[in-house]
TrEMBL record:
One term of GO molecular function: DNA binding
Keywords: DNA integration, DNA-binding
Family annotation (Pfam families): Arm-DNA-bind_1
Protein known as: Integrase
Domain Core-binding (CB) positions: 84-140
Keyword match Cell membrane: no
Family: Belongs to the 'phage' integrase family.
Organism: Salmonella enterica subsp. enterica serovar Javiana
Secretion signal span: none
């Protein structure tokens, strides 16, 4: 026999739904992958899925940064040259643009126009090393 169909198919990792038998409501919970603790997200399914996917993204970025920082420390200890990631480069770029905006070398509208492409570039290749970026990556 086939398994019975599920009414709440959850494709997001660490997101769980619980049925309260007293009221008949479905409550959503997020299980933190590091600590293992459950955090209540309420009864709104759409909002719970948004929060859980955002939390998973943030935790994945943190883990990637930790791995990269450990690799950088090891490379420094061994005397190798370390490369800069796209995220670090973008942070420096934004800092320079803020200084230019503050000293009125750059107009506010120009600053706002540059923000969206920079954000998209960070989302697309944020954790890659700058030397590994090709023209194809930028065009996408």
């Amino acid at each position: 026999m086939a398994a019975r169909p599920r009414s709440h198919k959850i494709s997001i990792p660490n997101l769980y739904c619980k049925l309260d038998k007293r009221t008949g409501k479905i409550y959503w919970q997020y299980k933190h992958p590091v600590s293992g603790r459950f955090h209540s997200l309420g009864t709104d399914e759409v909002e719970a899925k948004k929060v859980a996917s955002e939390a998973n993204t943030i935790i994945a970025e943190q883990r990637t940064r930790q791995v990269l920082s450990v690799n950088d420390r090891l490379a420094r200890m061994k005397g190798r040259r370390t490369d800069i990631t796209v995220t670090e480069w973008i942070d420096k770029y934004i800092e320079i643009q803020n200084e230019r905006l503050k000293h009125r070398e750059l107009r506010p509208n120009s600053y706002r126009q540059k923000a969206k492409p920079v954000r998209l570039f960070r989302e697309h290749c944020g954790m890659q090393y700058l030397k590994d970026i090709s023209a194809l990556d930028i065009s996408e």
